[in-house]
Amino acid sequence: MNSTPRRVENIVTDKGKVPVYATGIIDQPWEGYSETDHDVWRMLYQRQRELLVGRASDEFLVAQDAMGMTPDRIPKFADLNAVLKAATGWEIIGVEGLLPELDFFDHLANRRFPVTWWIRRPDQLDYIEEPDLFHDLFGHVPLLMVPVFADYMAAYGRGGVKAHGINPDALVHLTRLYWYTVEFGLIQQKDGLRIYGSGIVSSKGESIYSLESDSPNRVGFDLERIMRTRYRIDSYQKTYFVIDSFEQLMEATGPDFTPIYERLADLPSFPAGELQADDRVIHRGSGEGWPTDADT
Ligand code: PHE
Ligand code: FE
């Protein structure tokens, strides 16, 4: 599955006819975006950028500017790719939505980041159940400009292909790592705690909550601790894990995970909000407002 994707058919969408490739890749139908689509991008972009200065990691903000993403229009993937490819060898590919796990891992391993081509409706600015263009592009793509993070994402993809070949349990453990780093990670910067996870940077409410609320736990990064921790898909996180640097993340995830998966197979998982005895606790959450049904 390492070859260039093969175009297999044209499908008709409300944006016109678009080609679909064997791997689920789709050409960004840029001319088909409506003024409303561009408005949604502009509103979300401006709102988040304003909020994220002083909240998102400096590396995220610098990278986003360097890419040439602007609020005025939905960016063209081809324009961003020219910059991104030159910086770290990554490229964006358009997709309709979530991909089968193995396809997703294979894309990452080959430095292709799948971005959903469509954007949410104006009545979904605050919350959307599945990833859209704003989450994928605004949230995930900027850090792919940063060499160490770019390498981490590709290593994750290779690790995913490997875990997929081990057993479903290995995948569960690996997915938690993605969740608590790529999607919901915090980073300790010299001048304070900052956000780098895309699930947070693309959400107004969670950008504030993750840093400023008393409710959630904030705990120092620990690979196996994270792999054992359940998470929430329908509410803000109960626990956020904090890295000191992307280099720390890269180093901690460098070793072969195979023996770790074997060891963890016999160990119970932790509820999302439960602190553990060896945690490096940065903030003990008050637990206020936490949902009480089971975590994922
Ligand atoms: N070292 C991991 C493994 O052997 C691969 C990996 C790297 C996974 C970085 C996640 C992040 O499976
Ligand atoms: Fe995401």
TrEMBL record:
Q: Where is the Biopterin-dependent aromatic amino acid hydroxylase family profile domain?
A: 1-296
Residues binding Fe cation are 135, 140, 183
Q: Which reaction does it catalyse?
A: (6R)-L-erythro-5,6,7,8-tetrahydrobiopterin + L-phenylalanine + O2 = (4aS,6R)-4a-hydroxy-L-erythro-5,6,7,8-tetrahydrobiopterin + L-tyrosine
Q: Which cofactor does it need?
A: Fe(2+)
A Pfam family that this protein carries is: Biopterin_H
Q: Which family does it belong to?
A: Belongs to the biopterin-dependent aromatic amino acid hydroxylase family.
Q: What is this protein called?
A: Phenylalanine-4-hydroxylase
